[in-house]
Fold:
Amino acid sequence: MSREPCDACEELLQDFLDRTLTNDEWAQAESHLSDCDYCRRRYRFEETLRRYVKLSAVERMPPGLMEKLQQLRGFEADGLAPR
Ligand SMILES: [Zn+2]
Structure:
């Protein structure tokens, strides 16, 4: 079995974190998170990251930390910017 990232729920996850889901979508996201290991870990990481970013501005992060976080995420931190 390949461990493909869940492209389909990438968007759902962002909305989930932004709390912009309808009740139906919310339920869908929650049930997906409960049986998708990839998204669950991803969600926890994103949530932690967002909390951290809220607490202390990104610019105040020690040099290298943001890079490290981005490496962990595996992609650019575009998701942090409001849409
Ligand atoms: Zn998933």
